[in-house]
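Justification of resources, computational component.

The compute hours requested in this renewal are based largely on the per-chain cost of generating structure records like the one below. Each record pairs the submitted sequence with a full structure-token output. That output is archived, and it is also reused by downstream analysis tasks.
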Amino acid sequence: MNQHELWQWMMDGNYPETYPDGIEHRTAIATLARPVELKKWQGHGAKPEFKSVHLPSGTKVKVVMASRFGDVGITDNLNAENGYDARIDVEPDAVETLVNIEKQPKKS
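The structure output for this chain reads:
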């Protein structure tokens, strides 16, 4: 599965008319093919409000969101069900950022 196919699978899980497979929220684990900079929110009133975290290529991340804009949201918290720290473009012509993608469907 490439990163665009991941996006399609996640979008199918996010916006179906019904949930015939019992999956209401789809996530995945992937490996970064290139370095990514996360922006981690530190909370209301924190100085600075966001902290930059550099993830080198080879880092495992969790994909927790797919948007209609052709991107996915990732976090380095592999236990997260939501909440992302970076958005990755996964359009068919985008640079390959996510590899070794493993679907992690959560049964409701």
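Strands lie at 23-32, 36-41, 50-55, 60-66, 71-75, 86-89, 98-107. The chain has a mean pLDDT of 87.
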